[in-house]
């Protein structure tokens, strides 16, 4: 078959009538239409962070119940500022991170290269640390980072009681608590508490606007007024004081209006999807049931066979199942991340089982 390229996959996904995992990618023209609906385009744009950016910051602070929130062009920048703040305030350059956390796997260790910080790992288990593990740290940390959910462990969350105990243990050890909340929006249903209550356990919380909410880009760092003042200064020093960011701000506000109220429905339906997938021959789902609307699926076929089968299924039947299959340490078994968003709501458990079976049949032929 022709090469399975990114452009070919995107074209196939856009042409599909039904999508199980993920969403249909929008063109630039479609995103421009989104901007028309997102705000008053006859109003003045922002100039170095006022206007719609200020509106967005105030909205996030209100949702999280914090004194302030500061817009950042990237989450990587926001998180480095949060860790610097803790180190500067305490004089301690040590931060407690998880080896599967975003700072370690996806930010090129920016906390170390840019700020001279060093990490200790409370645990290497594929879950967030426990209160006992924080208390038992071999050396004090200025900040304890908790990723909600821990994506590279399978989008897993602690329980509310575990999270509250973990935050209390960190403070008892003299550390700040920072929530890597890029996906905090889908964490609230499992934790069973409001965004304000969740953020209230932390000294600072980072949120993303393009993950889950569908914004163009951008993030925010929320916390006290003192943190916000510090964050604005360091945002400028890191090069994040961009002249105009109104497209990102408007689409973020639109995402808060449009997507945020629907996320509990996505999380509920993800459990239906996961249970149906787990019934496929040789399949494994984790966690079961999912904690958020994303989870991991393993099937007993090589990644190349599953990726090619998924692509042909999309091109020939206009049905998108899941892509991004990766081989695992178990020969002949591949894993993919499943995201049950708005397009998946139309899928019944029977639909998932039927199409999954057709995917497996095709994969067996490669």
TrEMBL record:
Where would I find the Aromatic amino acid beta-eliminating lyase/threonine aldolase domain in this sequence? Answer: 47-287
Spell out the family assignment given in the record's similarity comment.
Belongs to the threonine aldolase family.
Q: Which Pfam families does this entry report, sorted A to Z?
A: Beta_elim_lyase (PF01212)
Natural source organism: Actinoallomurus vinaceus
**What SUPFAM superfamilies does the entry give?**
PLP-dependent transferases
Q: Domain of life here?
A: Bacteria
Q: Which cofactor does it need?
A: pyridoxal 5'-phosphate
UniProt keyword annotations, A-Z: Lyase, Pyridoxal phosphate
Q: Where is the organism placed in the taxonomic lineage, from the top?
A: Bacteria, Bacillati, Actinomycetota, Actinomycetes, Streptosporangiales
Any one GO MF term held by the record is:
lyase activity
Q: What is this protein called?
A: Beta-eliminating lyase-related protein
């Amino acid at each position: 078959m022709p090469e399975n390229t990114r452009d070919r996959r995107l074209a196939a996904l856009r042409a599909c009538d039904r999508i199980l995992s993920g969403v249909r990618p929008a063109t630039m023209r479609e995103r421009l239409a989104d901007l028309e609906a997102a705000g008053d385009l006859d109003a003045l744009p922002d100039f170095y962070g006022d206007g719609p950016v200020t509106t967005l910051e105030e909205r996030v602070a209100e949702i999280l119940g914090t004194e302030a929130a500061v817009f950042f062009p990237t989450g990587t920048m926001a998180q480095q500022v949060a860790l610097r703040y803790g180190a500067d305030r305490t004089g301690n350059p040590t931060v407690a991170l998880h080896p599967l956390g975003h700072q370690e796997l996806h930010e090129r260790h920016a906390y170390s290269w840019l700020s001279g910080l060093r990490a200790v790992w409370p645990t290497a288990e594929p879950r967030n640390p426990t209160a006992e593990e924080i208390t038992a740290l071999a050396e004090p940390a200025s900040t304890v980072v908790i990723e909600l959910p821990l994506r590279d462990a399978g989008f897993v969350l602690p329980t509310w009681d575990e999270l509250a105990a973990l935050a209390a243990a960190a403070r008892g050890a003299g550390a700040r608590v920072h929530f890597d909340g890029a996906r905090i929006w889908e964490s609230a249903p499992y934790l069973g508490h409001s965004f304000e209550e969740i953020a209230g356990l932390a000294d600072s919380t980072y949120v993303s606007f393009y993950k889950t909410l569908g914004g163009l880009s951008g993030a925010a760092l929320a916390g006290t007024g003192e943190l916000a003042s510090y964050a604005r200064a360091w945002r400028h020093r890191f090069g994040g004081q961009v002249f105009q960011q109104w497209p990102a701000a408007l689409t973020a506000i639109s995402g808060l209006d449009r997507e945020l109220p629907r996320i509990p429905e996505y999380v509920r339906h993800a459990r239906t999807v996961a249970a149906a997938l787990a019934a496929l021959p040789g399949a494994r789902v984790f966690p079961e049931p999912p904690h958020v609307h994303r989870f991991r699926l393993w099937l007993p076929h090589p990644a190349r066979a599953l990726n090619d089968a998924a692509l042909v299924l999309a091109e020939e039947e206009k049905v998108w199942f899941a892509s991004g299959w990766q081989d695992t340490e178990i020969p002949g078994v591949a894993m993919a991340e499943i995201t049950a968003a708005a397009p998946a709501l139309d899928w019944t458990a029977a639909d998932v089982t039927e199409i999954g079976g057709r995917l497996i049949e095709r994969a067996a032929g490669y």
